[in-house]
Every structure is written in structure tokens, then in C-alpha cells.
Specification:
Blueprint lengths: L4 E2 L5 H12 L2 E2 H11 L4 E2 L2 H14 L2 E7 L5 E7 L1 H26 L7
Parallel strand pairs: 1-3
Antiparallel strand pairs: 2-5, 4-5
Helix pairs in contact: 1-2, 1-4
């Protein structure tokens, strides 16, 4: 059985935005489960961490929410990406790709590269 890892600080908002971009409107529990599923069940999304991020993203205008019925016919708040959220996703994706490329350079570095 795999041990789940907590989501790294600062990455959850990006994962939420990307999940909503790819899958469309989802309720909070659905967002958490999809992030865990996409990670291959390596990441654990704590509800106590997710909902403050959703609130922050909504206050920033990156997402919006409305009440609806979940798959099991329970009342749930559904979140969707806004136009500003798409712009934020594009910007943050570019930043993360650049950061990943920089980190990759360090893993590929050899002593002769640094002399």
C-alpha cells in the first residue's frame, strides 16, 4: 500500500485551477479526489487545506461557485474556472515549468559543468 504525501505548499491552488480547467465544474470533494487520482494516489488532499484555497481563489476571482446537487443527490457547492482563473493558470503554469526546468538542470549538473 502506497503512503500518501501531503500536497506541497503553494501547489494546491495550481492543481485546483488545472483540475477545473480539464474537468469543468466540480464540488470540493470531487476536486480533492480528482487531484489524488491524477497523482496516482500519491498525494493526499486534506479538506482542511482545500477549502481555504477554494475560498482564496474565489475571493481573487479565479473561480466562482454555485450550489447544486452532487452525484448522490446531496447539496454541494460547485466551483468553476473564470476567465481570470484561466489567465492565472497560464501564468502559474509558465512559472512552474520554468522552475521545474531550473531544478532539472541541477539534477543533470556534473562537476565539470561547474568549473
Amino acid at each position: 500500500m502506497k503512503q500518501k504525501t501531503d500536497v506541497l505548499q503553494g501547489t494546491l491552488a495550481l492543481m485546483v485551477l488545472k483540475t477545473l480547467d480539464v474537468l469543468g465544474p466540480l464540488h470540493g470533494y470531487g476536486i480533492a479526489r480528482r487531484i489524488e487520482q491524477i497523482s496516482g494516489d500519491i498525494l493526499a488532499v486534506n479538506q482542511g487545506t482545500l477549502y481555504p484555497v477554494l475560498l482564496k481563489l474565489e475571493q481573487e476571482g479565479a473561480i466562482t461557485s454555485a450550489w447544486g446537487a452532487s452525484e448522490n443527490n446531496r447539496r454541494a457547492r460547485f466551483y468553476r474556472l473564470t476567465r481570470d482563473g484561466r489567465k492565472q493558470l497560464q501564468s502559474e503554469t509558465k512559472d512552474w515549468e520554468q522552475t521545474a526546468a531550473i531544478i532539472a538542470r541541477f539534477f543533470e549538473a556534473k562537476p565539470e559543468d561547474l568549473s
